[in-house]
Amino acid sequence: MSSDPRITATDRHEAEHACLRRYWRTNLAVVAVLLAIWAFVGLGCGVLLADRLNEFRLPGTGYPLGFWFAQQGSIATFVLIVLAYCLIMNRVDRRHHDELARLRAGTPASESSSR
Amino acid sequence: MTLQGWTFLFVGLTFGLYLAIAWWSRVRDTGGFYVAGRGVPAAANGMATASDWMSAASFISMAGLIATMGYAGGVYLMGWTGGYVLLALLLAPALRKFGHFTVPDFVGDRYESNLARLVAVVCALFVSFTYVAGQMRGVGVVFSRFLEVDIDVGVGIGVAIVFVYATLGGMKGITWTQVAQYWVLITAFLIPAIAISIRLTGEPLPQLGLGAELLAADGTASGVFLLDKLDSITQELGFSRYTEAFTGPWDRTNVLLVALALMLGTAGLPHVIVRFYTVKNVKAARWSGFWAILFIALLYLTAPATAAFARTFMIESLNGRTAEQLPSWYENWSKTGLIAWVDDGDGVIRYSAGEDNEIFRMGTMNPAEFAERIASHQRWIDTRGAEGVDARIGLRDQGLSGPDRDIIVLATPEMAELANWIVALVAAGGLAAALSTASGLLLVVSSSVAHDLYYRVLKPEATEAQRLRIGRGTIGVAVVVAGLFGIYPPGYVSQVVAFAFGLAASSFFPVLVLGIFSKRVGTLPAVCGMVAGLGFTAFYIVGTVFFGMERWTFGLFPNGINPQGIGVFGAALNFAITLGLTPLCRPPSESVRRLVDAVREPEGAGAAVAIETAPDH
After folding, report:
1. How far from chain centre, in Å, is Cα B371?
2. Which of B475, B408, B477 is nearest to B444 (CA)?
3. H/E/C letters for each residue in B572-615?
4. Residues B34-76 pLDDT 10s
5. pTM listed for this prediction
6. Which residues of chain B are within 8 Å of residue A64 when distances are taken between CB atoms?
7. Cβ–Cβ contact A39 with B under 8 A
8. Do the Cβ atoms of A89 and B256 come within 8 Å?
9. Helix-strand-coil percent breakdown of chain A, rounded to 5?
10. Residue A6: Cβ-neighbour burial (10 angstroms; 0-12, 13-18, 19+)
11. Hey, of A20, A38, A61, A82, which one would you mutate to test binding to chain B, going by the most B CBs within 10 A of its CB?
12. Given a cut of 70, is residue B133 above it in pLDDT?
């Protein structure tokens, strides 16, 4: 813990902590949504529903749909999931970085810890 | 030029390239040795990760597995890539931020326990050696078919190459060699697939070709989809329909369990996780994760097409042929024992799922014994059953029906009668895939021993020079051990690989996830969970695979649980025990909570690394 007696320093420490907690919650939400898609497409369409989806075809091709999900669709979706994660989280990181920079530049502590 | 000439040319050129890179990137300190000085650009790291990831199993065996299994082969595609998503989303950024050298390091520091560290070291060593054995076998197969040198000599050459660039360059040498190896292996995989796709369907993209109509003899669309054709011929011969979901032992439960176990296990593979330590910061770790899965997907989306093309060729070029009509690829490959025609006496080949099947493989049998059986079978035919033994019955009972799956990728270009240089390129690609993964794994072995065991546990006062020497020494010993595995392959490689994924799923994955996502989980629950998950999984796999234990059904799954899928239950048990014990045990210390905060905080990568050198922090 900080041994600095000045209140502003402790406040700033608190504010930084709150900032990290917000960042982490955003991260959890993003990961939860993306993993839900991961599970639905990979385990859902690719495995659990595969026999039912196999009754249909991917339009215009000879692929039975369940087979297509298991051997093509799921992998393509996984690539897009990682891309989405990368774009979203790098943006969230940048916002987090700006927020921390403002805190450290000495924005009044009361303002940032009031959230 | 002959096939052998082309092969010598390609293999010689690529090996020369790897050695040149090793010389250019030799290192002098442990940072460079273990994590390439943390200065590898994201896209290059993505390529290195991809070739590290894609082993001889992905390059040589996976398409063969899919060709044999049809729909159910998708478990490997989904399992290995889906696990990568878990790794990239849940573990990679935080582990990069943690910024040490190895996975056991994170486990040891996060749970403040050398016992946890040791369990992690043992897991890492086991997983790595299991994997390496498979790579070296791949090297042996390629050498024995394409260069017609003795397998022992082939493995010896492979070992020598890896030894040079791994000890000289460490992670830096390995990383840049892997980048080169990625290009070699992906070119070698895509060119034949594209050529065959054009020949069969007229579509240049194999992914479109797989879903397209076959070309008729005159080059126009025949109106019959490739997959429909494949479904009907597989059904005719008594196999299950190629695209049909859930056949035989691969019921819905087992497909789900095996896919999930491979996913969880993949996310815990130590040699892939360390790749994320080699980039500059958290942002670069994410981008390199994306590049890696993109580069991996190039091969994984093509493999199903190669598989279906190969299955079609295999059946059409063998079934119903006579000895005079045997294709030349059969002649070449029957020498390796990966495929063998055992006739019933009528001189016509039958390749089917029934008792009249005449296509077999040697498997892990002793070559002399196999030759003896074939000779005895020939006597049986010549004397019309008076002497000798019908080899088909014995082979069938031993589960050796059908060609070896390793033949599919390596022989497909020959089946499609592609040019010699393409066939030779595939040989170089197979070697690149095997060597790149082997070197990544050997580095894990070396860092586990030299860093986690020697430096962190046995001799914390060791100097930089001593550690580097131990690291180089271990990698040298490990390469030689791996080479011995290649020359005397353990007969149970494929079962043991399932073991590796199961262990990684039931041990590493839960501790890593909980270590990052919970601040409350302390030492004792984590160690108990890890030991319980590991013990349970090992018990089931060893029991069912080696001691003939009945597969468990829990009264719910009529086919029993595939040992490859048991890791899911092991991981669940690990999570349950860890989370169940947590409220009863002491929470971790303040410094661990700070460590967890630090790995979650994306800012200031590098600062977190210093946490161990600042005990007052």
Report:
1. 30
2. B475
3. HHHHHHHHHHHHHCCCCCHHHHHHHHHHHCCCCCCCHHHHHCCC
4. 665 556 777 888 888 888 888 877 788 888 888 888 898 888 8
5. 0.87
6. 227, 243
7. no
8. no
9. 80, 0, 20
10. exposed
11. A82
12. yes
Parse chain A into domains and list their residue ranges. 7-108
| C-alpha of B68 from chain center | 17
B463: left (phi over 0), alpha (psi -120 to 50) or beta: beta
Q: In A62-72, which positions are buried (b, 16+ CB within 10 angstroms) versus exposed (e)?
A: bbbbbbbbbbb
Residue A76 has pLDDT above 90, yes or no: yes
Tokens of B450: 């030299």
Q: Does A62 sit within 8 Å of B212, measured CB to CB? A: yes
CA dist B405 and A97 (Å) reads: 51
Determine the straight-line distance between the first and last CA of chain A, rounded to whole angstroms. 22
- Give, rounded to a whole angstrom, the gap between the first and last alpha carbons of chain B: 67
Q: What does B408-450 look like in DSSP terms, one character per residue?
A: HHHHHHHHTT--HHHHHHHHHHHHHHHHHHHHHHHHHHHHIII
Q: Do A72 and B90 touch (CB under 8 A)?
A: no
Q: Which helix (H) or strand (E) holds B119?
A: helix B114-142
Residue A107 has pLDDT above 60, yes or no: no
Cβ-based neighbours of B240, under 8 Å, separated by 6 or more: B70, B234, B247, B248
Q: What percent of chain A clears pLDDT 90, i.e. is strictly above it?
A: 48
| Candidate from A23, A72, A78 with C-beta closest to B207 | A72
Please tell me the distance from the alpha carbon of residue B352 to that of residue B31, in angstroms, as a whole number. Answer: 56
Chain A CA closest to residue B208? A61
Strand partners, A64: A57
Q: Other CB atoms closer than 10 Å to residue B67's CB: what's the count?
A: 28
- The ipTM is 0.87
pLDDT of residue B607: 35
Name the residue ranges covered by the structural domains of chain B.
3-313+413-612, 323-404
Q: How many residues does chain A have?
A: 115
Most B-contacting residue of A26, A78, A89 (CB-CB within 10 A), to test interface: A78
pLDDT digits (tens, 9 = 90+) for B150-194: 777 878 887 887 777 777 766 777 788 888 889 999 999 999 999
Percent of chain B with pLDDT over 90: 13
Whole-number pLDDT of residue B468: 77
**What is the third-level CATH fold of B3-313+413-612?**
Sodium/glucose cotransporter (1.20.1730)
Q: Are B103 and B122 in contact (CB under 8 A)?
A: no
With contacts defined as CB-CB under 8 Å, which chain B residues touch A74? 74, 77-78, 81-82
- What is the residue type of B284? A
